[in-house]
Prior knowledge:
The chain has 227 residues and is an all-alpha fold. The protein has helices spanning 2-16, 20-27, 42-49, 51-76, 84-100, 113-123, 126-143, 146-166, 177-195, 197-205.
Amino acid sequence: MMIVRLICVLIGYVCGLFQTSYILGRLSNIDIRNYGSGNAGTTNALRTMGKKAGVLTLLGDLLKPMVAYLIVWLLFHARYPDMSKLLCMYSCAGAVLGHIFPIYLGFHGGKGIATIAGLGIIFGYWPIILSGVILFVAVTAITRYVSLGSICLMLMFLIEVLIFGQMGLFTNLKPPYLYEWYGIVAVVVCISIFKHRANIQRLLNHTENKLSFSGQGSAKAQQKKEQ
Length: 227
């Protein structure tokens, strides 16, 4: 079964290689990695290319784990009904890895927040989804730090998965698969937070860039500044 798990991760990884912001940037004759924060994610797309690109990047990154989930479900649900949800989680984790570490971009992609959010939408219950949205919007609106809102969202997601899992709300996952599921969620959340290490340092130094709700985004005006 280890081979099947690896196949699911690989399927997800391939789905995660669709770097939405990078592709949108190339259509505008720019490499988003050379502008703003240098990150190929939703926030940098919003700052660099404007609201439309930001929304399209968010939607594209949300969809990647969903596509991976669907492929693995169709391939393995009938054959492994007891662990199909776990295999789908491996594929979603693979999509996160593909997004963060795309091989064709030198393993330098996004930070995985939107992709993990897509994973959460697939598997999460409404209390998890709703509370996560409220927390992210509240923290970002109050502080105007997207990175802080993202980190808080990741931590809350992991905590709620553990709590609701122990409460028996994930009825399609039984031990030991449930504990393996916890491990997968913990790994992708920790990787995403680790990718925010520079943001965390800037937050501690009070030098992190704040989100502007009025800017339209301009690649020419957003030369790479945050390192």
